[in-house]
């Protein structure tokens, strides 16, 4: 545990955004209306792979109230978008690659006229042979989704001498694991509005990354970045699904063409159909150990369907490979991953970037290994845990900021109090993970601007989008702590490209760490000016001065002090302004493409979940009763919010482990709505016991790391391993539906 | 187009409007009365974001047409707030840390209000059952349950 002496960080605050949300006055994108506003919709393909033979909007344009129908020909600049690889058309110009591809946008005076126009558009396709599986994608002679190969990307990691190590192992466990595509199912469907202000196209949308959105809109319009403004509307959840462009370009194009305000709101079905999905993984894994349980080697092969467009595929494949061996000290590791383009829904970012998938695999392996060795699963993990000094499969040497063993011990202690299997249908399982904070082996900076105004209240401007996880509150706490003010003194303006600097994506659990460090750097710059004035006034050395609780005082003699109002009056007298700009880029290196060697992340979060489940032998139904989850977050900036992440994560993990699965048939999602894609309800969720572990380390602001994705990941393998321990058969496939469990129960144990 | 006149009580005030008979109550409240707390999350009555209180009962307003509320008492979250400030129940949501993205919160508060009106000291299972028609993807419901228990006086304030 830390023994930092902090006054703001580490408490629980009323979130900055909570009051308007509780009052119902927070404005989500669909809540905006303007005079003279047009409504808009998208004409989408209903076939997975085709050239467009004929497109005719004549009848649509004759419908009263229809203002415009725009196609690719109406795009003034670039017609390709994508966070990493620009392979997705804003409007189809060459061929359709998936069901739901955008072909035209329609704007009309009413929503009804939009719907009528979408029905009236005529289209004829020349269908192309579709690619619906990675096997078909890989087959020589298959149709090609992009270019001349469907192999989108492959990655190879090699560390140590894997073959030699396996030959010397006493025990080797092996399995092929499968996870499906999942849907984010944020409760607010994607939406946005746009208008022209001072000649500038302005878009206000539900998003996780305004600065990326701005660059795509600017490229599309062929104008400089600073001639487009993107503002984040209050955003009703994202989980990675609002990292890609949704309505932003379509709205901007219509605003540009009409000069009028435009609103576009996706239906639930449309939102699910065209936003990204979690990459479905097939993982083959071998794990070898000595007879006393020491891990010697891990080998993993991963194949995934990245769908029609790249989206965040490169981030998922790279992270999955570098983290494939889990939070353990493994001296020999090999991983090979291959991602294929298909005509299926686009796979992309979803809370964890491939780690929820690989954690299901490496933790299944650890459970099997514990059984094979007759070892306690926690002891096996403690024996092999990453610790300060451990060398990762990338060659990175861990420093002191590693709290994995602490999470194992804390979770075990809490589980001892609250989890008890009392019936043969009940069982307990363990799941662990580590998670690199930020983008993998890439620069990913964030910036902040700060001003301490004349009365000691603060304006803080950060690009980082709060999508409900609470980054705005975190930034306020960090600024208040650094400046020695109160949480209430800080106003945060977030994610408005005309006001705030670049914040990067709200993804990869990076904002607390990276935008938090940027905020602290900006505050330190402002503080330099404050410090010089205070030192002069107090006649004390600047290095002795402490900023805390709206006061500045000498750490050597607290009676030498001044209040913030006194300090700001001094500042005014001398004509000084307390302003600061700062940015932070995590200390990483690019990875060697031959073997993935390098420093993919500056810092890692750790977590251990221990779950109690019940398996009904008659129906095969899995009930998750209780779960303890201990997360090493470095420093909890806000304890209630960290707990909220863990509680929400354990619920989402239940969905993934037990009942969620996107059903895709012929490239079409069969269950895009809540009545068919079930997410955990208040009746389903387990009792969650969050445990906060705080390790030493000074990488993040006041030692904070990240928790958004780490809060989800360990629950999935914990639930799977608990079920495995009840039924005595290994779980290789998610979700654990009643049918799958019954099939296992009717086989002899061990198969 | 044929129009109908609908008269009902909205947040304590009698209102009257001429509207298309096929208009969803959700759209009527948002577009004609500016009740923007009523959210459209799915349009099929599954997510509960469009919950309103109809004669005190939580219902999904996306599944009702304008003509169906004639003569009824309708309460939206706007009617729960007290002069634009949070009511005690909403204060409990704030103090419990129950709000994350916030999209489900108006429906959650209204459903909780209806529950507490009927059952001032609900058992944990009763809270779960009552809220089971309101989906939340962020919180795992734990702090929402806590907010309801706090409002029922079952759990100390422990205001953060």
What is the topology?
The complex is a heterodimer of chains A (751) and B (160).
Chain A: H1 18-23, E1 38-44, E2 50-56, H2 58-62, E3 66-70, E4 80-81, E5 88-89, E6 102-108, H3 111-120, E7 122-127, H4 134-138, E8 151-159, H5 162-167, E9 171-179, E10 191-197, E11 200-205, H6 210-221, E12 228-232, H7 248-258, E13 262-265, H8 268-274, E14 277-278, E15 281-289, E16 295-307, H9 313-322, E17 332-341, E18 347-348, H10 355-373, H11 377-384, H12 404-418, E19 426-436, E20 446-452, E21 458-462, H13 471-483, E22 490-494, H14 511-538, E23 545-548, E24 551-554, E25 561-563, H15 564-573, E26 578-584, E27 604-615, E28 622-632, H16 639-659, E29 664-665, E30 668-669, E31 687-693, H17 715-727, H18 738-745
Parallel strand pairs in A: 1-13, 11-12, 14-18, 16-17, 21-22, 28-31
Antiparallel strand pairs in A: 1-6, 2-7, 3-6, 4-5, 8-17, 9-15, 10-11, 10-13, 15-16, 19-27, 20-21, 20-26, 23-24, 24-25, 27-28, 29-30
Helix pairs in contact in A: 6-7, 10-17, 13-14, 14-15, 16-17
Chain B: E1 4-10, E2 13-19, H1 25-33, E3 51-54, E4 57-60, E5 73-75, H2 77-80, H3 88-96, H4 105-118, H5 124-131, H6 142-151
Parallel strand pairs in B: 1-5
Antiparallel strand pairs in B: 1-2, 3-4, 3-5
Task: Describe the fold and architecture.
The complex is a heterodimer of chains A (751) and B (160). Chain A is α+β, with helices and mostly antiparallel strands and 751 residues long. Chain A has three domains: 18-25 and 445-584, 2-Layer Sandwich (Aldehyde Oxidoreductase, domain 4); 32-128 and 187-237 and 242-274, Aldehyde oxidase/xanthine dehydrogenase, a/b hammerhead (Aldehyde Oxidoreductase, domain 3, Alpha-Beta Complex); 277-440 and 591-745, Aldehyde Oxidoreductase, domain 4 (2-Layer Sandwich), CATH 3.30.365. Chain A has 18 helices and 31 strands. In chain A, helix 6 packs across helix 7 (248-258) and helix 10 (355-373) runs parallel beside helix 17. In chain A, 62% of the residues are buried. The mean pLDDT of chain A is 97. With 160 residues, chain B is α+β, with helices and mostly antiparallel strands. Chain B has two domains: 4-80, Roll (Ubiquitin-like (UB roll)); 88-151, [2Fe-2S]-binding domain (DNA polymerase, domain 1, Orthogonal Bundle). Chain B is 34% helix and 16% strand. Chain B is built from six helices and five strands, in the order ββαβββααααα. Chain B has helices at residues 25-33, 77-80, 88-96, 105-118, 124-131, 142-151; strands at 4-10, 13-19, 51-54, 57-60, 73-75. In chain B, helix 3 (88-96) packs across helix 6. The longest helix of chain B has 14 residues, at 105-118. The interface between A and B is large, with 58 and 52 residues.
């Amino acid at each position: 545990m830390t023994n930092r002496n902090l006054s703001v960080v580490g408490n629980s605050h009323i979130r900055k955004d909570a009051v308007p949300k509780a009052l119902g006055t927070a404005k989500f994108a669909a809540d905006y209306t303007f005079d003279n506003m047009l409504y808009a919709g998208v004409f989408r393909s209903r076939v997975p792979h085709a050239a467009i033979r004929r497109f005719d909007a004549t009848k649509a344009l004759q419908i009263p109230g229809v203002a415009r129908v725009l196609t690719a020909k109406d795009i003034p600049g670039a017609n390709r978008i994508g966070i990493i690889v620009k392979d997705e058309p804003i409007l189809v110009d060459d061929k359709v690659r998936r069901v739901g591809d955008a072909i035209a946008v329609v704007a009309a005076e009413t929503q009804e006229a939009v719907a009528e126009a979408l029905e009236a558009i005529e289209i004829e396709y020349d269908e192309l042979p579709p690619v619906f599986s990675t096997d078909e994608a890989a087959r020589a002679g298959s149709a090609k989704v992009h270019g001349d190969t469907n192999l989108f990307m492959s990655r190879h990691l090699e560390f140590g001498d894997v073959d030699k190590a396996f030959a010397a192992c006493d025990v080797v466990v092996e399995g092929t694991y499968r996870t499906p595509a999942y849907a984010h199912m944020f409760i607010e469907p994607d939406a946005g509005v746009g208008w022209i202000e001072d000649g500038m196209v302005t878009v206000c949308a539900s998003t996780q990354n305004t600065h990326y959105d701005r660059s795509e809109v600017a490229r599309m319009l062929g104008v400089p970045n600073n001639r487009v403004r993107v503002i984040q509307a209050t955003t009703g959840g994202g989980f990675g699904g609002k990292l890609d462009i949704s309505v932003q370009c379509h709205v901007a194009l219509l605003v540009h063409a009409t000069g009028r305000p435009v609103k576009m709101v996706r239906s639930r079905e449309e939102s699910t159909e065209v936003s990204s999905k979690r990459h479905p993984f097939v993982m083959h894994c071998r794990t070898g150990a000595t007879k006393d349980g020491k891990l010697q080697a891990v080998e993993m092969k991963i194949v995934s369907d990245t769908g029609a467009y790249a989206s965040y595929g490169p981030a998922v494949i790279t992270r999955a490979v570098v983290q494939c061996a889990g939070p353990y000290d493994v001296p020999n590791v090999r991983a090979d991953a291959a991602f294929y383009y298909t005509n299926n829904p686009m796979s992309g970012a979803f809370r964890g970037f491939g780690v929820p998938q690989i954690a299901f695999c490496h933790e299944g392996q650890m459970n099997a290994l514990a059984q094979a060795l007759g070892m306690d699963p926690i002891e096996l993990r403690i024996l092999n845990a990453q610790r300060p000094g451990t060398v990762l499969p990338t060659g990175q040497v861990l420093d002191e900021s590693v709290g994995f063993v602490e999470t194992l011990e804390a979770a075990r202690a809490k589980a001892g109090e609250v989890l008890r299997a009392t019936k043969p249908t009940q069982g307990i399982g363990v799941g662990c993970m580590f998670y690199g904070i930020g983008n993998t082996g890439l620069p990913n900076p964030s910036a902040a601007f700060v001003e301490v105004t004349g009365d000691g209240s603060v304006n803080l401007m950060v690009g980082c989008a709060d999508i409900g996880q609470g980054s705005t509150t975190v930034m306020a706490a960090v600024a208040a702590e650094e400046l020695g003010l109160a949480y209430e003194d800080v106003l945060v303006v977030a994610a408005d490209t005309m006001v705030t600097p670049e914040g990067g994506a709200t993804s990869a659990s990076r904002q607390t760490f990276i935008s938090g460090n940027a905020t602290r750097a900006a505050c330190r710059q402002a503080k330099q000016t404050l410090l010089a004035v205070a030192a002069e006034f107090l006649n004390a050395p600047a290095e002795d001065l402490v900023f805390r609780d709206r006061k500045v005082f000498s750490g050597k003699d607290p009676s030498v002090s001044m209040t913030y109002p006194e300090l700001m009056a001094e500042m005014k007298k001398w004509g000084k302004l307390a302003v600061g700009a700062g940015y932070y880029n995590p200390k990483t290196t690019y990875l060697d493409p031959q073997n993935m060697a390098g420093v993919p992340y500056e810092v890692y979060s750790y977590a251990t979940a221990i779950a109690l489940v019940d398996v009904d032998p008659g129906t095969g139904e899995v009930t998750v009763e209780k779960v303890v989850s201990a997360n090493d977050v470095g420093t909890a900036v806000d304890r209630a919010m960290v707990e909220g992440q863990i509680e929400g994560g354990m619920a989402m993990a239940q969905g993934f482990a037990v009942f969620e699965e996107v059903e895709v048939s012929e490239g079409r999602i069969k269950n895009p709505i809540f009545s068919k894609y079930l997410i955990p309800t208040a009746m389903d969720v387990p009792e969650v016991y969050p445990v906060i572990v705080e390790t030493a380390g000074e990488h993040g602001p006041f030692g904070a790391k990240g928790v958004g994705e780490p809060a989800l990941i360990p629950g999935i393998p914990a639930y799977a391993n608990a079920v495995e321990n009840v039924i005595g058969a290994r779980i290789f496939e998610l979700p654990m539906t009643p049918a799958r469990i019954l099939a296992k129960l009717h086989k002899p144990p061990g198969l | 187009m044929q129009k109908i006149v609908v008269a009902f009580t909205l947040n304590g005030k009698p209102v009257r409007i001429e509207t298309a008979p096929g208009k969803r109550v959700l759209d009527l409240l948002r577009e004609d009365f500016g009740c923007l707390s009523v959210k459209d999350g799915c349009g099929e009555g599954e997510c509960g974001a469009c919950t309103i209180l109809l004669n005190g009962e939580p219902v999904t307003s996306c599944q009702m047409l304008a003509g169906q509320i004639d003569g009824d008492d309708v309460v939206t979250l706007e009617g729960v707030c007290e002069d634009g400030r949070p009511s005690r129940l909403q204060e409990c949501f704030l103090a419990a840390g129950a709000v994350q993205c916030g999209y489900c919160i108006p429906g959650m508060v209204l459903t909780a209000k209806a529950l507490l009106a009927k059952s001032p000291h609900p058992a944990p299972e009763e809270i779960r059952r009552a809220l089971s028609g309101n989906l939340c993807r962020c919180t795992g419901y734990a702090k929402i349950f806590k907010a309801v228990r706090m409002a029922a006086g079952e759990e100390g304030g422990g205001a953060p």
